Amino acid sequence: MIRLIRSELIKLRTTNMWWIFLICSLAFTGLALLINTAQAHQDLQMPSWLSEEPPAGFSDEEKAQYLANYQAEQERVQAARTAAGLAKHAASIYTSGQFFGLLLVMLLAILLITNEYYHQTATATFLATPKRTKVIVAKLITGAAMAVAFWLIATVIDLVTGAIFFADLGYSNSLGHWTAQQAILLNLLVYVLWAIFGIGVGVLLRSQIGATITAAVLYTVGTYAALAMLALIHEYLIKKDWVMQAAVYIPPLASLHVVGGLSDQLGDTHLPARWVGALILIGYAVVLGTIGTLVTRKRDVA
Questions:
Q1: pLDDT value at position 180?
Q2: What span, in angstroms and rounded, lies between the C-alpha atoms of 243 and 276?
Q3: Which residue of 84, 122, 155, 277 could cross-link 258, Cys pair, CB 3.0 to 4.6 Å?
Q4: Measured between alpha carbons, how far is 132 from 126 in angstroms, rounded to an integer?
């Protein structure tokens, strides 16, 4: 098994794709950090156009509305500055870049499989190791190791940037708060699971172009098309919270829920606990990994 894993790592390292994907991951992480820190900064500060005294010339009704807005904003900012509020923003910042990071990890894992068929090395691989299950397990371990590396690089960047950001504003970085710790650790699990998804997709769709395009479209366009459909059903057909809660069963949104980001998109829909999203992802990974292994053991590779 060690030799097989070493072989898979060599195959991965000797291609140009891994560092191209890594550069893309760094770029997306930086962009997400910029957005998340800007959002946190906005939430932690009172709007510059609001002051305790209403502007001159307002009628009594306008003054009352102005003061009500001021009070609401003050309460919102105070809530954001509590330990729980800061930890929520910290969780978002410390997992910046997850959405596209997971996509890139999945695509790179797909290439671990489809490259074998594209370069016609699958036959030689399975002749050298007739027990195909071992080959798939080696690829799963390699994909998981690659996912951990991508997670580690992105997380180090997020942690350093986030700590500097909070220190500059004079707030706690929340690294000692379980909400932030949980988001970071569960994000690691999510990265590994999406690598397993990629291996499963690569086994089921052996065409390199077909597998990568199909996976990328389903991950991006398909995810938000499904979310839009749920929103329409909730708005016009079934006005129950469970309709929007079903978004947790969509893998990319389950990943977002695991780190606490789905509630920002869906609002107060009484979403289940984060571990439910993790269990859903594990279920998908087990199913895809099992199907992929069984298909590889039975299918002709010629």
A1: 92
A2: 16
A3: 277
A4: 6
CA distance 132 to 86: 49
* pTM of this structure: 0.87
| Cα-Cα end-to-end distance for the chain | 24
DSSP 252: H
Which has the closest alpha carbon to 97: 177, 173, 190?
A: 190
Higher pLDDT, 285 or 93: 93
Give the pLDDT confidence of 133-157 residue by residue, as tens digits. Answer: 788 888 889 999 999 999 999 999 9
Distance CA 302, CA 286 (A): 27
260 Cβ contact list (under 8 Å, min separation 6): 88, 91, 92, 179, 183, 274
Six token digits for residue 36: 């998340």
- Rounded Cα gap, residues 233 and 225, in angstroms: 12
CA 131 to CA 113: how far, in whole Å? Answer: 16
* Contacts of residue 28, Cβ cutoff 8 Å, sequence gap at least 6: 97, 99, 100, 101, 104
